[in-house]
């Protein structure tokens, strides 16, 4: 069984995160709101109005960046929902609960 400490103290850069600057190669950074530190780099953004050199649809790249930037808040929401649903282990709550447990485990365990 997962340790509660691991769920409460994940080993990743604390959020919230934002979509940062796009460089001249069509890559954009995901970074903490109050830091220049880079959490991730997403390829596929348009460069100066030209198509991306990375063979990635710019619309898909932007959607990926938004999802990654929202990860810390999504994890918090999953953890809160898990606590709320935990006592209700009847359907449909049971399925939702175990889906949340799985998602939280993927996000917090190395």
Strand order of the largest sheet: 1-2-3
Rounded radius of gyration (Å): 17 Å
Structural class, judged by helices and strands?
A: alpha+beta
State the distance separating the first and last CA atoms.
Answer: 15 Å
What ranges have pLDDT less than 50 throughout 5 or more consecutive residues?
Answer: none
Q: Which oligomeric form is depicted?
A: single chain
- The proportion of strand residues reads 5-15%
Order of helices and strands: HEEEHHH
The whole-number mean of residue pLDDT values reads 77
How many distinct beta strands? 3
Helix content: 40-55%
Give the overall silhouette. Answer: elongated
Give the biggest sheet.
3 strands, antiparallel
Number of helices: 4
Give a written overview of the molecule.
The chain is α+β, with helices and mostly antiparallel strands and 110 residues long. It is 44% helix and 15% strand. It is built from 4 helices and 3 strands, in the order αβββααα. It has a 3-stranded antiparallel β-sheet, covered by helices on one side. Helix 3 crosses helix 4. The longest helix is centred in the C-terminal third of the chain and has 16 residues. The model has no long low-confidence stretch (mean pLDDT 77).
